[in-house]
Design goal:
By secondary structure, the chain is an all-alpha fold. Helices cover 54% and strands 2% of the residues. It has 17 helices and three strands. The structure holds a DNA duplex.
Amino acid sequence: MSIQMTHRAGPESNPTGSSTTFPEVAEPVLRRVQDTIIAWFEDTARDLPWRHPNTSAWAILVSEIMSQQTPVARVEPRWRAWMDKWPTPADLAAAPTADVLHAWDRLGYPRRALRLQEAAEVIAADLDNRVPETTEELERLPGIGSYTAAAVSSFAFGRKTTVLDTNVRRVLIRLFAGRERPTTSPGRKETAWAAALVPEDKHVEWNAGVMEFGALVCTARNPDCQACPLQDICTWNRLGRPASATKPKTQKWAGTDRQLRGAIMDALKAAHVAGDGRHGVRLDVFTAAVTDFDPALLDSLAESTAAAVARVRELSADQDRINRLISDLVDDGLAQQVDGRLALPNS
DNA sequence: AAGACGGGGAG
DNA sequence: CTCCCAGTCTT
């Protein structure tokens, strides 16, 4: 196939003088990209369980929430267990929040589990236990932003939406704008630009396909350009794959509040499972164990709970800091204080 | 526009 | 040890 572009996408050609950030894409190029991505997807997509026929909209929604900022491979087993336990919104709405947080396991950002249960409550109570189909309605639910709303509307209901996750943004930016990576977050212009690239036919396959392509071929770190069926028209590749000027600032982990919060949550989960009671850990024991580290106090706890509390101490013996984080966790709904105990929330 | 928010695994 | 993952929500 001979590709004759009417004008090349890139900074060097901008006859109209309009923004080159998101250049107009010549129709024949766009058609070839769409056909190629869709064919590639139908041929080589991963066999993810939530892509199976008859997967409920709710199950798809759950998969999307779990996949936020989380590699799909790590989501799969958690998703299976979750859907087995709570197949419908009403099931999740009725579950004890402590169980929900425990089932969330170590997927990260546990507030997502809270928001998901809240969404389930709204769907069960106000929406006849049915997931809404439009992005507008979906975005009103807690924990669902523009990406997840578009994804659920497309993948669960076949509506024509613009799915714009980190993969899609990277693929489109490379192919058509010649840059290595997208900005921190998509703006109005980028969203409108991406929307114009969605085909009328097979838009679901396009949405899922570009995402999958970004996850498997046009990856952030080491893209497999040799295997890319679009390498000849990819603007970024043709420019010699220039590195973006500014690298994203890397987030710290060791020593951060996030790490310590996670360790405290671990202790509460351990207490929940160990049967130190659904009432959690005595706050004075927790505090004393952290500050004074009296082994005798740990003896009053189950072994796994004691280990988790000891881990908190390893990270910090700063009682003020720990008290502040506990207070934050309570405010966030991730923990509760009852009768001098700290525990996972029981509602 | 910038930060906060988890945790893990690949390079 | 750095990077980055099917983002969302709050300053």
